[in-house]
Amino acid sequence: MKSFSFERAQSPADAAAAAARQPDAKFIAGGTNLLDLMKLEIEVPTHLIDVNGLALDRIEDTEQGGIRIGALMRNTDLAAHERVRSDYGLLSRALLAGASGQLRNKATTAGNLLQRTRCPYFYDTNMACNKRQPGSGCSAIGGFTRQLAVVGVSDACIATNPSDMNVALRALDATVETVKPDGQTRAIPIADFHKLPGDTPHIETALEQGELITAVTLPKPLGGKHIYRKVRDRASYAFALVSVGAVIQPDGTGRFAVGGVAHKPWRVEEAESELSRGAPAVSQRLFADAKPTNENRFKLALTTRALASVVEEART
Amino acid sequence: MKFDTPAATNPIDQLKVVGQPHDRIEGPLKTTGTALYAYEHNLPNQAYGYVVGAGIAKGRIRSMETAEAKRAPGVIAIVTAENAGKLGIGEKNTAKLLGGPEIQHYHQAIALVVAESFEQARAAANLVRVEYQSEKGRFSLNEEKGQGKKPEDGEPDSAVGDFQAGFERAAVKFDAIYHTPDHSHAMMEPHASVAAWDGDKLMVWTSNQMINWGADDLAKTLNINRDSIRLMSPFVGGGFGGKLFLRSDIVLAALGAKAAHRPVKVALQRPLIANNTTHRPATVQRIRIGASQDGKISAIGHESWSGDLEGGQPENAVQQTRFLYAGADRMTQTRLAVLDLPEGNAMRAPGEAPGLMALEIAMDEMAERLEIDPIEFRILNDTQVVPDKPSAPADETDPQAKAGEGGNKDLPFSQRQLTECFRQGAERFGWNKRNPQPAQVRDGRWLVGIGVAAAFRNNQTMDSGARVRLATDGVVTVETDMTDIGTGSYTIIAQTAAEMMGVPLEMVEVRLGDSTYPVSSGSGGQWGGNSSTAGVYAACVKLREAVAQKLGFNADDIEFADSKVRAGNRSLPLKDAAKDGEIVAEDTLEFGDLDKKIHQSTFGAHFVEVGVDSFTGETRIRRMMAVCAAGRILNPKTARSQVIGALTMGAGAALMEELAIDERHGFFANHDLAGYEVPVHADIPHQEVVFLDETDPTSSPMKAKGVGELGICGVGAAVANAIYNATGVRVREYPITLDKLLPEMPDV
User: Where is the FAD-binding PCMH-type domain (chain A) (predicted)?
Assistant: First the structure.
């Protein structure tokens, strides 16, 4: 770990301003991802701004009938919150499908949104990686790709977003609230928050330098059945091969996002209108532009089957 | 003590302490965090080493720039092949433990950065700039196996009768190819060492299974006197064969300490372990079975291909096929290709573990072809003599003279309760509830199936020594360089000494894992439990003699019990023997050639029930049972722990474990515990272990055999067969992940 300076932020706006002053600054909350990456020198911040004291760790109701989740709310607390469990079961289930109890106790809502890819080539610093070192190339393409993305990929990157929570937030139409270094706040729809890799896979979100996530809001509850289906080789503590986060209404209509297939939680709203025609039809729309590798082509059929499983579960 | 005739009745047979399910005597140290593992030894003025691993698989270092790293804060020394002096190579190592300029495999250690703190060493290690000249390597077993050669050592080929003709003649034939992948030991504690020099004396605290091998090879590698080395490994946080040998952490800690003139500690970083250390090599196996319509095997052939670095060893995956089932015409063949992947070597039950993963699917497939119950098919072909060792030269004109069918020179098994294992397991597991038609049983969205497989592992023994002391206060202390790699060695050694000397377990102290103690069997090949306690037995026999002499007993019926020595009406406290000073006895149990006259193996049967998600193809194990016949069980509690651990490891091999090879760069790409998945608690809901009552007087005075590796043998196939029973999909390539099942699963 390279040496770095450290400060405790006094307010969200202060934190953002402090981050803007130092180009290599990073916010630290739970640290469950950042510290690992710092040990490997994949992340090399020169300055850490501890945001844990900013009192952004509670849930409140919004005027629109939804909820505002503080950026620093721990995954464990969020998953266990009564309002989340009763009205946004999908979010609760997605959270509990991720990581381990110990990690969820530390990990925060904002940190989970910013969780970086688990592509093995991103982690091995002997290998070229455009995310780690822009312009160096992508050694994942043509390599071991079983876990990697099948859709929305580019010639520069085929990494996936590993988060379960993000899949739920995408299906629930969350909004990410932030404060910028100049004190301005903004609300970024979740659909625009995560980026596809394109030519700049190192740019993963819409956040600007220094911009700090303060909250995530969810619109008023959708009702329906909330299902998170995570498919993986082992029963726990593994990243999804494919996951489906869905809210299915009694009439069979619904909405869903898919994890483990793309650089961002994958949702194609037009595909949702195909639900009545069955999972294969939905998948066709979802993966219209898919570019799987030989090793991860199975994710397409697997998503179809996972979707069918979700629809079946909603029916019973 | 020589052991060359079957053991008679001896004090161990009392089973007052031995054979009892005692808790681990060192358990409290471990649960309170006070058992000091290698890296936790803190020495005054110690420094920290961080290993730089090669960034290519094959080629040369063109240049290595260390100036910037040397200038980094806290850096004391940087060790490289260039400045380390001339190094030898250990007897049991294939690749160099400090590489350069030639690179033999990915993440081969090429430098150690030593600094005041771990963090400084790590930061500086990232400043070492290396330019490589890459060479084309051979990384694909499938591509290279055609070039595979007959290994020089061992018995790569075996033949009895005429396999080809016998197979051709058989009424029912089966022929299939199976694949097992490379596996990583993935033990909890990484390889770690702390080294300190005192003049030309070297002390190393390390994590190693075989103290004597380690000390020998360290001397050879450093070109120093073996006697000037003290290796200590009192606690080992898992080994599984990955710590059988001298590895780079020991060598680099010693070299780093020499360069820094200070004690240095080195732990291999987790991402290095898969490629820097050894692994279980992948295999391709072809199995052919010929049988009569009524299920008698007449011909069985097993060929295996694996790869290793030039000068390395094959994975002996055909081993069990020479012993497990009858059949007159047989052949096995092992071929070894050169691969430039990291070094392959032993991992828990080398040979049998991957061999049975293939053979025991083949047996399931053949049973189905014959329309015979898989258990009955195995029992039908059970044998009480080694089928691979014919009683007399085969006489073509007289079929009765063929192998294993008469004559009085058959090589018998000392004990072979394979059929009993199957019968008991079937009864307890509820085998009769299995629907022999695959893909018939549903539980909601789950397809449910039951599978079975035989377990087999040869019983190996190793000479083992110990020293036993009787102190003035009556405490018995055992010293041996035996290791406890989580297996329970401390406890069974204490039980042995307590039984022999007639004292309670609390009166025994056990000191292990120090090269100044008598050389033991060490921990490997499931020989450690039986061999090391036999060594303690031998030393205790000597101590009993010394005690008897001291106390003036010369009767034959002398008894050691209740901390007393008794003969006839005379009884004296044991400790009286030491009232003039401690009594010390030392001996080594030397195994003769008894196992050449009577073959010793361990047997078992695995039963597994799985559910396979009909939508996603995810396999989840529902319950597992192992029935083991493995000689006397010295401690049913620690033995059970061994077997449930082995079942878990077998489940990993069946369902998820695979070192993924990047064939362009020649390395295992998933080289951390996020990428290399091993089972977690949620994968293992219910396990049951049954030990059949058995004593084997041919194995040692303890009448025990190994069980820690038997437990993994066959598990993978039992899972595979259960998946087939659940889904009707037969997968012959491990691990059986959902992507291999889905293409053949019914639509949903």
Answer: 1-223
